[in-house]
Structures are given as structure tokens and as C-alpha cells.
Amino acid sequence: MRTPVVAIFDVGKTNKKLFLFDEHYDIVFERSARFLETVDEDGDPCENLESLRLSVFDSLHEVFRLGEFDIKAINFTSYGASFVYLDESGRPLTPLYNYLKAYPKTLEERLHSAYGGVEAFSLATASPALGSLNSGLQLFRLQQEKPEVYEKLKCAIHLPQYLSFLVSGQVYSDMTSIGCHTALWDFSKNGYHQWVQETGIENKLAPIVKGDEVFSAAFPGSTYKVGVGLHDSSSALIPYLLNFHEPFILISTGTWCISLNPFNEEGLTKEQLEEDCLFYMTYAGTPVKASRLFAGYEHEVQTKRIAEHFQVTTGRFKHIEIDWKLIDKLSADKRIPADLEAFGQVALDSFADYVEAYHAFMLYLVAAQAASTRLILAEKRIKRIFVDGGFSKNSIFMNLLARTFGNIELYAASMAQATAIGAALVIHDQWNTQPVPSDIIELRYYRA
Predict the structure, then answer these.
(1) Which segments constitute the Carbohydrate kinase FGGY N-terminal domain (predicted)?
(2) Res 380: pLDDT
(3) pLDDT digits 0-9 by tens, 419-437
(4) Domain with 153 in it: what CATH number?
(5) Co-location of 224 and 252 in the same domain
(6) Which of 196, 201, 354, 392 is placed for a possible disulfide with 192 were both Cys, Cβ 3.0 to 4.6 Å?
(7) Please, which pLDDT band fits residue 183 given cuts at 50, 70 and 90?
(8) What pLDDT sits at residue 379?
């Protein structure tokens, strides 16, 4: 008897993974790959699209050859802000440009000034001005700088949808990709922004479908269904949306700590935009207010600095439990600024040892995190905050955050492979005969 499974490709910047989940959402097979980056025509590093394409087919062949699994459906999740430009025959016309690639200022200014200036433009599209990270601007650049390539362009699709296209042969756009700081969508009109229509770029975009849509596979005789693919940040939110119905915030922690509030429908203000707030979209096309903080990166920088100063290894910081006496001493006589980079200016010889210095740094980091999360709190009463990712395992971070948000329940949430599970859950009915399990997310409560 073969085990019914769903196959999920989870394509990150560094790791490309394939998971098979059984009907209880246990991982029954896993394969991981890393490729060398290549370069685009300007010599800037970028993803190797051809390696990625071959890897998808290799991995699929491998699991189809394994006799013990019956693959009922396949779905994809990947990072956003990356367009693949397809020609008539479905082949990529250009490299997959990196979203960190420098963007020509004059081009950005020309677009902004034609549509009311950077502030009005960013507010309408809920996208802080981020150059190439606004993937719509990448498409505008192709149109303006490479008209001969743009002429051959049949369709531009985001990376998760390209992966789906490889298996289904269908080109579609999905709301989670369009909704992530692409500068394409007008959130007040709930449609493409005027510039997308007036430049004709809309004609190069695939029809929009909901994130839980599935198609038939392109290969004759295949019975499995193929999902449309999801933007990874939106995918990681799905298990929470399906399990918790009282208003909550999810703080997804890693290099970036992203606070996501699916229950805040108020439009963005100018101040929120300046503080790096934006909207994402759920798979159903409803807005999710989000704020971002580069906290994981800063944590890496400052722990290295403390470790070097006190001549210890950074591994020492992993298991420091909170010492409330130290916290009281460090916060007794001063107001901690909610500025993530402020600790970088603090002289380390004012601390007795690395433990005290680390506690002090975490006071700064949590002050910045709390300020970032408060930007999206909204009037609707939030009952719970869930923290997942690296910081959910950090005793000092969790305890200080619980104290800061004293009237909201705070939980460390752990779930192996949340992003991949989100992509499996969204098409649950297409492959799974069991009800959605209620114990996918493990919670640990932190008392204020």
C-alpha cells in the first residue's frame, strides 16, 4: 500500500528543499540542494535558473521512482520580488535578476514623479521605495532599457509561479506574490495600479488566481494536482490562519524579523511607510499589515562584537537564561532607545562580562522589536502574539517581549518547516482525506 503524500518545493535563496508530507503532515522524505550562483550580463550575482529547473525535474523523477509514495499533489513556495520573463515557447529570456541588484535612480524617479511622487506612489502600492525589491520596477526597467527583449516577452511571472509552470504548463499570477512590495497593486482600488495599465505592462502579466487554486499536470497520464505556488512569507502564515481565529500577530524571526497582522485593515500612514511597514497578501487576497526589522542581522553583528571583546565564542550566547536582577540593574536608570543600531555605539568596557553585555544588547533589540510590532497593532484587540523562527528559542528575547506586551499572551511557536507546511495546507482538500490536524504548531507560553 503506497503512502499518499504531497510534494512541496521550498526554494530559498540558499537552500532548495523538497519535502514529502503524509496525511498527518509528518515529513516522510526530504531532499536538499544548493547551487552555485551565476552572474547576469552586468556581472551581478543571480540565481541559476537552469540548475533550478533541472533540480525540480531530477527531484521529481527520484520520488516518482520510489515505489512507496503516491504523490497526490505538488506545490511550491519561494522568495518573492523575482520575475521570470518567458518567451512564446515558455523559455526564460533573461537571467533571474537579483532583487538586491542596484536600480537606476533616474528610472525610479521618473516612474514616481509621473504618479504623484514617491510618497503617494508608495502609499497607494503599500510598497516602501526599495529599488529592485519592488519587482514591478524590474519589469519597468526591462521595458525601458531592453525594448528588444521586452518585445519578445510573452509573460512575466514571479518565481513561485514559474516553478509551478514547469510542472503544470500553465501560467498564472497569484495574490501572495503580487502583494509583496512589488509596487504593482493599488491596495485602495484592489486592482493593478494605474501605472501598470498605462505603460501596457499589465498585458505582459498572467491572469490572477487565488493561492489555493490547483491545475492538472502537463505530463500525459499524470493524476496529481499542481498548486499555483506561494510567496514564502505569506505561506508561513497559513498554518496560523487555519488554526487560530481570534486576532493574533505572528512575528516571524530570522535575518529579518517580520511582524504580520492579518487583522489590521487600516491603510498605511506616511509614518508607517517611513518605518518600513508594508502590506503582504494572504492566499485569499486579503491584506496583511506587516513591519520589518533587520534584527537577526544586527544580532549576528553585535554578538560577534561582544564575543571578540570578551574573548569568548559566539556559541556561548545560545544558552544564556534570563537574569532578572541583571535586567533590573541595566534598565534602572536609563530609557532604552527603540533604535536597533543604538547598541553599536555603546562601549563594551562598561560591562562586567559577556553575559551582562548580552543582556544589555537584548534590552535594545527587544525595545526596537516592540516598536516595530506596535506599528501594526491596530485598534482591533490582539489576543495573542506568536513568535516563530530563531528568536523563539531565545529565553531573554521571549521573556523581555512578554514583559513589554504585558496584556497580550505571548507564545513561542515551533513548527518544523512552516513555509512548506503552509503550501501543503492551502491545497489540503486536493490531496488529503484526513481533517486538518490541530496540533501542527507547538506552543510555549511566556508569562509577563
Answers:
(1) 6-227
(2) 66
(3) 999 999 999 999 999 999 9
(4) 3.30.420.40
(5) no
(6) 196
(7) very high
(8) 65
With a CB cutoff of 8 Å and minimum separation 6, the contacts of 132 are: 81, 97, 98, 99, 100, 101, 102, 103, 138
Mean pLDDT of 171-195: 93
- The partner residues of 446 in beta bridges, in order of sequence, read 410
Q: Is the domain of 307 the same as that of 201? A: no
Q: Please report, for residues 30, 304, 394, the alpha-carbon distance to residue 293 in angstroms, rounded to integers and kept in the order given.
A: 31, 19, 17
Set of cell numbers at residue 227? 498548486
Cell 530570522 belongs to which residue? Answer: 254
Give the Å distances, CA to CA, from 19 to 235, 354, 385, 403, 420.
15, 40, 28, 37, 8
Predicted TM-score of the model (pTM): 0.86
N-term to C-term CA, the chain: 50
**Pair 194, 249 in one domain:** no
The three three-digit cell numbers of residue 95, written as one number: 537571467
Range of the domain at 35: 3-228
When pLDDT is averaged across residues 409-417 and rounded to a whole number, the result is: 92
C-alpha cell recorded at residue 20: 514529502
pLDDT of 219 reads 83
Strands 173-174 and 287-293: unpaired
How many degrees, rounded to 5, is the angle at CA 377 between CA 376 and CA 379?
Answer: 120
